[in-house]
Structures are given as structure tokens and as C-alpha cells.
Write a structure and sequence with these properties.
- The chain is mainly alpha-helical and 59 residues long.
- 66% of the residues lie in helices and 0% in strands.
- One of its GO terms (biological process) is cytochrome complex assembly.
- It comes from Bradyrhizobium rifense.
- It is a single-pass membrane protein.
- Belongs to the CcmD/CycX/HelD family.
Length: 59
């Protein structure tokens, strides 16, 4: 397969896009882990979610 005179530009562009996508996936995975850890800590400290209350429980 021949990419012609622009082969280096094409390969570099695809590599850069792949690196950006990989970084974004890693960022989302780390953020998910941090958010679930924060939720566990809040649950342990007694903070409840508003969605967990019924309409009768509202003041």
C-alpha cells in the first residue's frame, strides 16, 4: 500500500489521533475511579443522595 508523498503526514496524524483517544480513555477511567471512591466515602460518612429519598421525606 502506497500513501504517496504525504505518507509521513498521514501516519503522524493517525498516530496523534490515537494518542489523544488513548489519553481521553485513561482520563475517563481515572475520573470514574475517583468519583466512585468519593461516593463510597460520602456514603460511609452518612451523606445520602437526594434521589434516595421519597417525596414523603422532604421537609
Amino acid at each position: 500500500m502506497s500513501l504517496g508523498p504525504y505518507a509521513s503526514f498521514i501516519v503522524t496524524s493517525y498516530a496523534a489521533a490515537a494518542i489523544v483517544v488513548a489519553i481521553l480513555i485513561g482520563w475517563v477511567m481515572l475520573d470514574y475511579r475517583n468519583q466512585t471512591q468519593r461516593l463510597r466515602e460520602l456514603d460511609r460518612s452518612g451523606v445520602t443522595r437526594r434521589s434516595g429519598r421519597s417525596a414523603v421525606d422532604t421537609p
